[in-house]
Design brief:
single chain; mainly alpha; 0% strand; globular
Length: 484
Amino acid sequence: MASTLPDKSPDTDGRAAPEPAGQQPRASRIEAHGIDRIPDAERRGRPRDLFPVWAATNVNYLSLVLGGALVLMGLTVWQALAVLFVGNLFWCLTGFLAVSGPAAGAPSEVITRAMYGVIGNRVNNAVTGWLVSVCYFALNLSAAAVAAFALVEKAGIPATVPVEVVVIVVIAALTLTISVYGHATIMKLYVPLTLVLAAAFAVVAVSVFRHADFSYAPAQPLHGTRLWATALAGVALIASGPLSYTTSADFSRYLPRTASRTAVAGWTALGGFLPSMVVCSLGVFGATVVDMSDPQSGLEKILPAWFAPVFLLALVLGTIAINALTAYSAGLALQAVGLRIRRSVSVLFDGTAAVALTLYGLLISDFLDTVNNVLQLTVVLLGPSMALYATDIVLRRNRYDGAALGDESRGGPFWFRGGVNRAGAAALLLGATASALCVDTLYTGPVAAALGGLDLALPAGLLVASGSYTLLARKELRAAAPCA
């Protein structure tokens, strides 16, 4: 049934929006909306506009690192490509979640109130939204900084610690500028950005394929349990990318509510899948001829000399693209936690935290080890979280009332009991527990230990979270949760 709640147009901190009703947001203006519902008069665009947004985010340094890591883990070229394919199929889930955006006109950070309740969702956004996003921002910023340091040295400037700090801050500032201006800027900027990055990586592809050893095999090929354990760990590593985007509705919520669900899901998934497969594959093939523990330096050995600075700049631009989306969603998550601050302010807060983590990751810790450990470990939480979200879309038939979801009052449509939807909270806890028992990364869970190191954290978390939520949520869904 349709909600009878008043349709407000709050600004980013929950007050009335400064723009006249129905005015179309422009790329030259800071986005007025935060976690509030987008009025129908301001809906615009086509599903295919989502493709460049997701494509630009996957032509980046981290994708090269992950592709090369699969070979460094001991896989053959064709085993690594198979792992890439399976891991990148999780972009289909990212695309599926995006269909909830046009239905509700609200970001993922608000739609998940239907799963966890108003108070429960604040905890969810604090952990799976804000904290995970800031960690990914820091990892990607670290990757961009490594390339930027090399670019600075080519310009004749020694990469001392003070210089490195300045470089990190400058990259973060450029990234946060895009995030602060928001949705319209992202949608307009990412089309030419995708074309520029595609052209740059086409040159990389030619050089890599000219030198690659397509018959490469490690000196000591993996067999049996060790092979399966490594392959499963690789799938989790690659899948961590699409699984981190439980926020895909953030970028589809401005589409008209009549937008084709198939098109929204398809263009989102395709935008993530295709470039990720291509760039990660370059990392795989590059690892057959150069040392991909340092992709930037390794690949420079087989690239044309004139192209080396362009390549480094492309790595930086690609990472800025992915981090602008991450910071944008992290800002919305911080608002959804309950902080009454403007979206632009929340984005700047996220950036400050990410810069601090980046400085630690680059100046103190080991970058590649940090990447592998963090990405594999986040699957313990992100897998169940995404599975639960997707299951809710199926159970509700994607009927979300954005106005009702915006009601945070005690006794409101999504208050449930004590502000918590116990079905969603329990399902997430069960899924994360099952995943943690099966993980083999920073620590080895008891199930993984019993299976000789097989890491089944990803499928266990997905299946347990989805199955338990299906069983537990039926009563809540029959109790008249609002429909659009």
